[in-house]
Write a structure and sequence with these properties.
Radius of gyration: 47 Å
Strand content: 25-35%
Mean pLDDT: 87
Structural class: alpha+beta
Order of helices and strands: HEEEEHEHEEEHEEHEHEEEEEEHEHEEEE
Number of helices: 8
Oligomer: single chain
Shape: elongated
Low-confidence stretches: 415-420
Helix content: 25-40%
Strand order of the largest sheet: 4-3-2-1-5
Largest sheet: 5 strands, antiparallel
Bound molecules: zinc ion
Distance between the termini: 120 Å
Amino acid sequence: MKLKFNINSNVVKSKNNLEIARKYHHYDNVESIHVTANEDVYHIDAVVSVFNHPQKCSLDIKDNQVISYECSCPFNDQDSMCGHLGAVILKLNELEINEFPFDYQSDKLQKIKEIEKENKRQRRKAQLRQMASMSTKLIDFNKSQYQTDLYLSINQEKYDLTPNVYLNRDEIVLEYKIGNEKKYVLKNITDFIERIQNQENYKYGKALEFVHSEKSFTDDALKQIDLMKKALIIRHHDMEEYPYYYEPIKRSITIDSRLFDEFYDANKEIFSLGEMECNLRLYIQKEDEYYIVRVTVVDPIYIGDKHGYCYGMNNGEFYMNRMTFDEEGNVCRFLSSILDNEGKLIILEEQYQDFYKYVLLPILSYFEVFDETQNDIPTYDEIKIYGDNFIRNLMKLSVYLEKRCIEFRYEKICRYKRHN
Ligand SMILES: [Zn+2]
């Protein structure tokens, strides 16, 4: 048995509401219909969804006549049913009902779900595309690396850096030009080092454009590049410590004591920098229970990390001379602390032996010593160490205190530095 309703649409008395009902019907806004039968009365519960707002409504039908209706919307009243109910009636007339309870579900929901599913698929696709961009970047990077290497192996030309040095008050300032025949001023050293690290192509002017890489510079230029890198590290450190005082290095590097050694090594030949004799005097005096150690320098010197320097301008030419000290920096450490302290150190009598042994003894050969204390400080002259060649690279070391052997052992020779 099939049931088909045939309810006259003029049951919606308001023309306006009927018009709205037709629109709801046309746009498939009736979401669901549930029909139950009680003898000859059919009860209908429906949901009509407009702009995502679901509205519940219900009606009772007997012999294709509406005997009661209910909807809580403001357009439903005693005089006329609302558009919601009208749409339900129009839909109801289309349905073929074969059993009770009967359920109708709009396939619009299904369509929305499909649209959502499709959107989700598109989003996933976009997400994958986004994720794949990482590997695209890798490919691009390696590709450009490959091209750079190829370019560098074809283009054998190596470029030079020409330093220019001048004094600003008593500070050494260093600037550069880049290029071989035609030279250009290096306007930003920070950017320049970054270009090398990123292997960037850069054009300085009509006559100079090349891919920056350590391979594209002469050995002399590489020394300057190392100096620049150390200067950048020091500046970076200073900027973190004193952010209001320092700014990034641009055109010029100020050479302070932390850069003296590197500056000298990189520029020794270019500016024919010289050597100088150690002209340091060390005086040791005793006063009551204190020892006083004083240092005097004949010429004023600047102390680097490892070596001492004097520099200045002479007839418009920059000069710098190095006083070579020990590679461990012991002399410089001692000189820095004593010169910062008005050229003298006071040592307690009971600490003097240790001071002599650990501080003075390793550096004494760099000074002309005037010891006025006449003290019996052990100079360790009586300790002698003998080394004998033994099997292959093993050496027998014997330690003699005065004439008595107090210790010997075998050591691998390669662990010892040669001392002349
Ligand atoms: Zn309504």
